[in-house]
Write a structure and sequence with these properties.
By secondary structure, this protein is mainly α. The protein is built from 3 helices and no strands.
Length: 186
């Protein structure tokens, strides 16, 4: 390789002498040769120590990025799992809430029916008691009116006749008359 380079340099130098102005463009052959050797030495050291360090740094960087991607995937999977759990819990909570609302509605309907039944029973009881009280009061008023009518009838009959009548016999007579009137009115 050095032989080829030196040959190129020599040929370039000879040609420079022949053309004259080409020497202005081409570097001195010894400088060119020294530059190529310096470049080779620098390239050797870079290739021997810098490239492996750069390769190692790139591999470390690649591993770090790969690890970050794996961590991101794991985090994404965990987040998806949490989201699925959240959605499942939300669905269960909605179902539970719906069940609670339905149970409350059924309970309210049952309570309403119970309250209505109790109110109807109470209304019937009050109506029955009122009818019984009215019937009792009517019977009492009728009994009182009977006694009063009987006494008035006897007093009136004594005044008309002008003497005392047998009170017990007259009361029986009035009672029978009132009973007959009741039967006729029914």
């Amino acid at each position: 390789m050095l032989y080829a380079m030196s040959t190129v340099l020599i040929l370039a130098a000879e040609e420079a002498e022949e053309t004259g102005n080409i020497g202005l463009v081409l570097p001195d052959p010894y400088e060119l040769f020294a530059g190529i050797i310096a470049f080779g030495i620098v390239f050797f050291f870079v290739w021997k120590w810098a490239f492996p360090a750069i390769d190692k740094m790139l591999e470390d960087r690649q591993r770090a990025i790969k690890g970050q991607l794996e961590d991101a995937e794991a985090t994404k999977a965990e987040a998806q799992s949490l989201l699925d759990d959240y959605r499942k819990q939300l669905a269960e909570a909605k179902g539970e809430a719906s069940g609670i609302v339905n149970a409350a509605r059924e309970s309210a309907d049952a309570m309403k029916a119970d309250i209505v039944a109790k109110a109807q029973a109470e209304a019937e009881r009050i109506g029955t008691k009122a009818r019984e009280d009215a019937a009792t009061e009517r019977d009492r008023a009728l009994a009182s009116a009977r006694v009063e009518v009987a006494n008035l009838s006897i007093d009136l009959a004594e005044r008309v006749v002008g003497e005392n009548l047998d009170r017990a016999a007259q009361l029986g007579l009035v009672e029978r008359y009132l009973a007959d009137l009741e039967r006729m009115s029914e």
